[in-house]
Write a structure and sequence with these properties.
The chain is α+β, with helices and mostly antiparallel strands. It has one domain. It is built from 8 helices and 4 strands, in the order ααββααββαααα. The strands form 2 sheets. Strands 1-2 form a two-stranded antiparallel sheet. A two-stranded antiparallel ribbon has the order 3-4.
Length: about 180
């Protein structure tokens, strides 16, 4: 498997969130990664981990990571352990996530680290039920896809993180740049 810069960031972000928050199991981790990627996209026009998120009933799910948890690739398995743990008297199973490596911040920008630290502080004690609620807010990307468009289990476009006026401003800058480039030809 080719290990890309974004792939390394995904693995390191998992280690960071599991190490720096409590109750960080599958659902909470998925929501923290979603907030990281969409917040960074809103600020810069690009995600951190390059993950695709789909609108599932309990919120956004990074579908490739969801599939990989069952059989982690060697780079993921070397860095993170995923194990099932029985809870509620053995009637339910929870995914336990433990780092196998120390967090390495070298691949992250200051902005990315700032977002991760803020999310870890904000959601330090938050449990998965409240994380689900936070991703279901009205007019947020998950809500726009799942509820407003009725596109259940479909990809959530990053562009939905931009507010209408932000999107217009971004498009205006792109148009102006295109016009400038055409004038310079």
């Amino acid at each position: 498997m080719l290990i890309t810069h974004e792939r390394e960031k995904l693995i390191q972000a998992i280690i960071f969130f599991v190490t720096n928050t409590r109750h960080c199991h599958k659902i909470k981790l998925f929501k923290l990664l979603y907030f990281l990627d969409f917040e960074h996209f809103k600020e810069t026009g690009r995600s951190v981990t390059a993950s695709d998120y789909c609108a599932w009933p309990y919120g956004p799910v990074p579908v490739d990571l969801m599939a990989e948890i069952e059989v982690p690739q060697p780079d993921m398995a070397a860095s993170v352990a995923f194990t099932n743990k029985s809870i509620k008297g053995g009637t339910q199973v929870m995914l336990n996530i433990e780092p196998r490596a120390e967090f390495n911040p070298e691949n992250f920008t200051r902005r990315e680290m700032g977002i991760m630290k803020r999310l870890a502080e904000e959601f330090f004690e938050t449990k998965s039920e409240d994380m689900i609620e936070a991703t279901h807010l009205e007019n947020m990307p998950w809500d726009k896809v799942y509820n407003q468009q009725g596109a259940k289990q479909q990809r959530i476009p990053y562009e939905l993180a931009l507010r209408a006026q932000e999107e217009e401003a971004l498009l205006r800058v792109a148009r102006d740049r295109k016009e400038l480039m055409e004038c310079l030809r």
